[in-house]
Recover the amino acids of this structure.
């Protein structure tokens, strides 16, 4: 203990001018070094250590001597910084001028650092458990009180882009924090392709086939898709599923907030859908956009200032009048229908056969529709008698919670079934362009020549250029 | 008959247990708990009718002119003195008749002499205070009647009425001798310290309420940061080696936890500072050059549990707010083990602290809103003053009795202002 205090004072002596004196009577006093035997001794040790450091070539601290003399060895962490830190282990108590006894003293204190100042993995885990607990509490306070299941109805069919689209929907549904029932209606009958996606999702799924094949024009497709969705609703009625029905078209993109927001619906709700009218042709799109300055690419409810539903904002298809796609693989922009199904959600109890208490009167009786006696023409709004009673979601359509997109491949595009390739791929770029380890020494010469030949080989130079850069 | 009496007793017992449950659920917001400190459930008390305050009319050189010279005084953390005067001038507790007043308020802005950087210089403050007291002692008889024992002053500076920013010098000066008997409303509070006298009322520092309100984020944003702190660890300008600033505590936090992913600590001041606090569970409130800081107010407003690292600190309204239940107190010597301490707090305790913090009266008590609202810090100060009533007999001096020494203190302070 005495050794440590003497050691400390000598270390601090080294720090020099900013050191405040130990004398309590002179608070603003400067430092007056008093030569004492102990300080001379430590000065000698210090000189010895400096000499040794010069000889050895690295810093030899007198800490080693200290540890030679001391009996207690704690868990050391000695780097050059660690040395000074260990020296600061105990605080330097200074006399306080106050008359009252206070354990808090003014003056220079040591900076306490524990021997291993790094995170302890068990504590980190405990902290994460605390975080989870707090977040669970937050969810129960601010989130939904009694969450209802989400019933997603997806019409689909086998084509090149199906993998892209269904993977998106599948992942979105898998992330939903509520119970999900995924009803997949497939045009042209059930296939293994779709079944594999549906199976991968690890959700409760209902996969049914639909007898018709998906037609080739967008107009006809819309009709068939509507029929497929009605088929999905029939399944909801038969199975008496309880929850909120969402029309999750396979090419749409859904945000997570959508599923939180729809929990607020009571019977029939409408929300804003961002319409992404995309065509393969970038030039055309820009010219269209220049013309179409007003009108947002959104379909959704619109309210007056008091929040009451007064009308609907639909996507302005005027600018695209002459240039819309008719066939599925046309290069023009694909237009949405007047009212897309995906912008509406409904309570599954509306579809049940048995009369449910407090079923609203402003919704038509859907039995006729579901039994196939009627055709639904204008989209889901024809299911309500009084459209002004529809509930608005997402702060009356101001939040766009999902995006509508229709993009498909060329009609003649082929893709490997299940996206599994049976035989190895054919070579399109010879491998001597890549830096394989057994490449010949001729390679740099080859690339230099390739550099001069650059303008000629425009198409393939992309990959080659990148490889050249790696080599250089 | 016997069965019926048993049933009645059973029902009565149930009612009793339900009435003693302290938590209650407000409609769709966070359930909170009632806050009651050592003085009881006093946060929601209304001071109107319980006391009368007379506000001295000092010449504007003591207040208005100073403010005109530097309007930054309205937004810095010492602005409580200015807003207190404005509140009292239009409050129903104000009386224009000094004979019926229980408390007398002297509106002098001692913390408004700012450097170009915005920090207040306390060098002229003792002289200013002295000059103000001389003025009221000579123009009104109320000071001499009690030698200031029923007067209160707002001194929000670093070390209160010691009027210095350096702790050693402040301790050396001590509280201004003329204020020995007055009640001081100050932000500084540390037990067994010269600059905190018995009977002072500790208030929170001023934090701009509108600015904080405008940075609120939805309550469902999950709290994903475990510990949050933004501020200096080493004050390189004044204490380059460390050890003086914050008694080495802030430096210890940095050295021990700079690579710990649970601790989001840094010296950078991001624009999302307030939003980040709302995403954190614990917010560190270590001492700096003085033990108090606006971080406590910010932590309470944003629902982040304050981790107070300042030995013997006295927190605002300590008799009305049970800080032990709300915040986590860590001794300075235990700072290297802060992660162990914080991760070993049981989750129910954390949830309870968050519920207490969510209590709107708790948040209101930390603010100085313009105009004043019920339950805010102004009202808590008045409540504190009301709790000190009625004045003890010893407050009134016998004729000819003199207890204050008008010539005590450093010679420089005796010069007129």
């Amino acid at each position: 203990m005495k050794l440590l205090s003497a050691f400390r004072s000598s270390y601090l002596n080294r720090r020099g001018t900013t050191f405040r004196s130990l004398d309590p009577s002179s608070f603003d006093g400067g430092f007056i070094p008093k030569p004492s035997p102990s300080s001379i001794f430590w000065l000698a040790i210090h000189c010895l250590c400096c000499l040794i450091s010069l000889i050895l070539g690295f810093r030899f601290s007198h800490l080693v001597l200290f540890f030679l003399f001391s009996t207690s060895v704690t868990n050391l962490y000695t780097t050059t910084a660690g040395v000074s830190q260990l020296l600061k282990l105990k605080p330097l108590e200074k006399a306080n001028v106050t008359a009252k006894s206070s354990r808090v003293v003014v003056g220079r204190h040591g900076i306490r650092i524990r021997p291993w100042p790094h995170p302890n993995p068990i504590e980190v885990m405990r902290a994460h458990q605390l975080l989870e607990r707090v977040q669970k509490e937050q969810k129960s306070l601010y989130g939904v009180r009694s969450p209802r299941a989400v019933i997603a109805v997806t019409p689909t069919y086998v084509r090149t882009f199906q993998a892209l689209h269904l993977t998106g929907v599948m992942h979105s549904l898998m992330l939903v924090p509520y119970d999900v029932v995924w009803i997949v209606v497939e045009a042209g009958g059930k296939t293994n392709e779709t079944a594999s996606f549906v199976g991968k999702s690890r959700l409760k799924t209902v996969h049914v086939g639909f007898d018709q094949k998906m037609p080739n024009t967008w107009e006809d497709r819309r009709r068939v898709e509507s029929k497929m969705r009605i088929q999905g609703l029939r399944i909801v009625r038969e199975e008496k599923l309880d929850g909120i029905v969402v029309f999750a078209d396979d090419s749409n993109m859904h945000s997570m907030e959508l599923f939180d927001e729809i929990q607020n619906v009571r019977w029939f709700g409408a929300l804003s859908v961002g319409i992404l009218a995309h065509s393969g042709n970038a030039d055309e799109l820009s010219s269209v956009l220049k013309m179409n300055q007003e009108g947002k690419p959104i379909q959704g409810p619109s309210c007056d200032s008091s929040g009451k539903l007064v009308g609907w904002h639909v996507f302005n298809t005027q600018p695209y009048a002459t240039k819309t796609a008719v066939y599925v693989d046309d290069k023009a922009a694909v237009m949405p229908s007047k009212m897309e199904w995906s912008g509406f959600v409904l309570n599954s109890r509306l579809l049940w056969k048995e009369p449910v208490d407090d079923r609203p009167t402003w919704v038509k009786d859907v039995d006729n529709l579901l039994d196939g006696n009627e055709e639904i023409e204008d989209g889901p709004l024809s299911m309500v008698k009084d459209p002004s009673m529809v509930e608005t979601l997402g702060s009356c359509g101001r939040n766009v919670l999902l995006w509508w997109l229709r993009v498909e491949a060329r009609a003649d595009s082929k893709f490997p079934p299940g996206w599994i390739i049976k035989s190895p791929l054919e070579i399109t770029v010879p491998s001597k362009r890549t830096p394989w380890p057994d490449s010949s020494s001729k390679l740099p010469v080859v690339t230099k020549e390739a550099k001069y030949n650059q303008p000629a080989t425009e198409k393939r130079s992309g990959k080659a250029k990148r490889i050249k850069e790696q080599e250089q | 008959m016997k069965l019926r009496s048993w049933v009645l007793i059973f029902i009565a017992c149930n009612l009793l247990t339900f009435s003693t449950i302290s938590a209650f659920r407000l409609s769709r917001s966070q359930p909170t708990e009632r806050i009651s400190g050592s003085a009881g459930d006093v946060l929601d008390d209304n001071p109107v009718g319980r006391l009368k305050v007379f506000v001295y009319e000092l010449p504007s050189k003591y207040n208005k002119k100073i403010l005109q010279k530097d309007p930054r005084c309205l937004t810095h953390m010492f602005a409580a003195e200015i807003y207190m005067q404005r509140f009292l001038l239009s409050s129903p507790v104000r009386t224009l008749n000094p004979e019926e007043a229980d408390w007398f308020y002297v509106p002098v802005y001692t913390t408004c002499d700012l450097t170009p950087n915005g920090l207040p210089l306390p060098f002229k403050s003792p002289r200013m205070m002295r000059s103000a007291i001389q003025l009221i002692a000579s123009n009104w008889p109320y000071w001499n009647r009690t030698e200031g024992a029923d007067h209160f002053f707002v001194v929000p500076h670093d070390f209160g009425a010691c009027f210095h920013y350096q702790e050693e010098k402040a301790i050396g000066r001590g509280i201004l001798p003329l204020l020995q008997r007055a009640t001081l409303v100050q932000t500084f509070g540390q037990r067994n310290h010269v600059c905190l006298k018995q009977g002072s009322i500790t208030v929170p520092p001023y934090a701009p309420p509108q600015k904080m309100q405008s940075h609120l984020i939805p309550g469902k944003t999950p709290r994903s940061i475990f510990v949050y702190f933004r501020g200096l660890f080493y004050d390189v300008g004044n204490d380059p080696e460390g050890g003086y600033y914050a008694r080495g505590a802030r430096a210890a936090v940095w050295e021990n936890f700079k690579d710990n992913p649970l601790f989001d600590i840094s010296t950078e001041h991001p624009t999302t500072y307030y939003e980040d606090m709302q995403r954190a569970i614990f917010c560190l409130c270590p001492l700096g050059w003085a033990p108090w800081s606006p971080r406590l107010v910010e932590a309470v407003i944003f629902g982040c549990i304050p981790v107070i690292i300042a030995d013997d600190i006295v927190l605002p309204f300590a008799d009305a707010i049970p800080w032990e239940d709300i915040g986590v107190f860590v001794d300075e010597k235990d700072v290297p083990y802060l992660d162990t301490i914080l991760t070993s707090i049981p989750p129910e305790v954390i949830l309870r602290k968050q519920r207490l913090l969510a209590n709107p009266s708790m948040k209101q008590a930390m603010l100085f809103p313009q105009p004043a609202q019920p339950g805010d810090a102004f009202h808590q100060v008045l409540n504190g003053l009301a709790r000190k009533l009625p004045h003890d007999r010893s407050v009134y001096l016998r004729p000819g009795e003199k207890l204050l020494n008008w010539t005590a203190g450093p010679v420089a302070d005796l010069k007129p202002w």
About this structure: The radius of gyration of chain A is 38 Å. Chain A is about 35% helix and 10% strand. The first strand of chain A starts at residue 150 and ends at 156.
